[in-house]
Protein: Pyridoxal 5'-phosphate synthase subunit PdxT
Amino acid sequence: AIKIGVLALQGNVSEHIHAFEAAIARSGIFKNYEVFPLKKADDIPSCSAIAIPGGESTTISRLIDKNHMREEFENFSGGIFATCAGMVMCAGAVDDERVKPLSLIDIEVGRNAFGRQKDSFEAEIEIKGYKEPYRAIFIRAPVVISAGSGVEVLSEIDQGIVAVKSGKHMALSFHPELTGDFRLHIDFIKNLGITEE
Ligand code: GLN
Structure:
């Protein structure tokens, strides 16, 4: 079976599991698949993709090291679907030294970039290649401050870049697991380039 792990150290894990299951079922892209809560470093290499959910990136950073997962992530050859705190974790650089990012995507990320007034908000955003806008939920969201030349910007709003793609990886400032719009999940899965036997 094709395995998709949702990093289950902290944060909204079950929403991500449900969203991936729904996205795969709806698109019919795989027949034989498993979406599971990823808790052990040993399970990382067998995944075709891993979602790193939102939560608190300072905590997730600490727990990745506590669970000896850093090296497995650095050597991971599948795709990462990184949302919110997950985006912070995948960056090459973060504006908070308490976070030790995994350097999987060549971006510099600022935490809590929207300030107190806009702690949480929803916005209809434009995403590259999509005809219809995407309703994005931002919760104490980060923003991409700068992106390397190999990184494709999928969405930029007034405050900065909020969605990027880099190789098999996708990183989003907002929470695609909460809205029932699975376009980004489906594009991410298709971009893994996996065909079932
Ligand atoms: N502000 C959090 C952080 O930077 C992210 C918030 C979230 O994931 N919803 O860790």
Notes: The two ends are 10 Å apart (CA to CA). Residues 2-191 form a domain with the Rossmann fold fold (CATH 3.40.50.880). The chain has five helices and twelve strands.
